[in-house]
Amino acid sequence: MLLKSWRKEVIHPVCRPEAESVQCIAHLDQDIEEVIPYLNAVLGGFRCTREPPSVSFRAQGKLIAVHGRKLCVNALRDEAEGDKILEWLKQEINDAWERRAAIRPSFESAPQPKMLDILRLLPRTNCGQCGQPTCMVFSALAAEGGKGAVDCPPLTPEAGAKLDAYLARFHFE
Prior knowledge:
With 173 residues, the protein is of the alpha+beta class. The chain is built from 5 helices and 6 strands, in the order ββαββββαααα. A 6-stranded antiparallel beta sheet has the order 1-2-6-5-4-3, with helices on one face. β3 and β4 (54-59) form a beta hairpin. The two termini are 30 Å apart.
């Protein structure tokens, strides 16, 4: 077992006290840097770097970043949801490590959605109903995997389907 324990830090956004989501950082007691290319190969990270080794991906509707000594999970409803995702991630990390002989490690990043392509699919009203100040900001978050059609209330069902289809090409949920 590679990953055994961590110290959890739950962060409430200071810049947006009205935000209902929290972020969770697990400061790892073990260095898991060696598993990162295997985890990327298994989970299909949309951003993976060699130096320093890290992988980011979207799973369970959350943005997750894995570094050698920490795990970061974004946009959580509460601390309990963070605990559940951290336990799932621990299982995935340890499973990838145990099966590493059968996995071809990879630092390749998946193709990325383009912010302007996403913006073209949005209503471009800058209404703020999504919680973001502009459609451009929403587009940037969607390009990173943090937002989807369901997060834009003014989108028509047809436009939402187009945005979902576009993001699905990049393995975003």
